[in-house]
Amino acid sequence: MSEELHTIPALEEAKRNPLLLGLFLPLQSGAWSPSLASRDTRPDFDYNARCTLMAEEMGFDLVFGLAQWMGKGGYGGEMKFREDANDPLLITAGLAAITKRIMLVSTVHILYGWHPLHLAKFGATIDQMSNGRWGLNMVTGYKKSEVEMFGLGQIEHDQRYVMAEEFVSLMRRLWSDPDEVTFDGQFWKTKNAFVSPKPVNGRCLLVNASSSKAGMDYAIRNSDLIFITSPAGADLDAAVEALPDHNRKIKDLARAAGRDIKTVINPHVICRETETEARAQYDRILAQQDSVAADNFYATFMGGDQSSWKSASRDQWVIGGNVHIVGTPEQVVDGFRRLKEAGCDGVQVNFYDYINDLQFFGDRVIPLMKQAGLRV
């Protein structure tokens, strides 16, 4: 059986829902928002494990977090935004032992000194630990400061995806081939390499987030899920105007390649019983921003050669997330409905005060999502 014929039962089960539901984990201090407004969000394992177990109980389909390599002080400011940055591969391994159903995705910068054999072995191990629920969010990296931490030189944007193609192709062979693999590639070589045990389902879930042509071409060929960003910034009205064409292009390319790929977008959800309360929280986050951290955070993404995220304004970066959905439970569900109608197959939500916001989301929003036909 070819690798392409292998299915991932956890993903197929998730696809029964009209709208996939994921949770972005707060693995970095300050999570998504360089703000000093009051919250309890923390990056430690115990806190993220609580979030994950709550999400699993609520029926979420997947969780994952960012990978960051930060210098002392992170993005700076009084809060030292994201100075503490836990590793998602190791966090995910810990979560595999305490969860039963939810998919666990690790973000890895595959060009920061990895060999495909390392990740093939580590990924297969976590996949075994989780009984087939592990996935890889492959990123190539673009920050000069990160590349220099590993003693590497900057790689041209499109070339990074040429390298990623070879990396992932070899990794997939190591997951699927019953015999030893010898490979003499342009970027990686191996002799008589072997991985056993294999992933539970013959392969692992593959995820990518890219907006450039080179990145999208790679994702179409290799990914099960593509995390997309709004071409029009974080305003919901603007996003749902721009997203239909963006989603249509991706899915047309996928169909032409014989692939069934789902797109997932990242809303920052601020939900309260009244719209006034929700808007007040939005304003509070913005008003109490750490200006130094916010300036540095915004400048980092505006200055890179990546295509994703660049349409958001500085204030939208302070709130965090790719699309902002602010309001009552009914308004949040309506926002999700609009994203679905714009062609998004799923939402990967993040919050400001994670445990409290997630609990409210589970109590008040998910039942309405079911009533609206977005969840089964």
TrEMBL record:
Keywords: Flavoprotein, FMN, Monooxygenase, Oxidoreductase. Transmembrane segments: none annotated. Gene3D superfamilies: Luciferase-like domain. This is LLM class flavin-dependent oxidoreductase. It holds the Pfam family Bac_luciferase. Residues 22-345 form the Luciferase-like domain. It comes from Paracoccus maritimus.
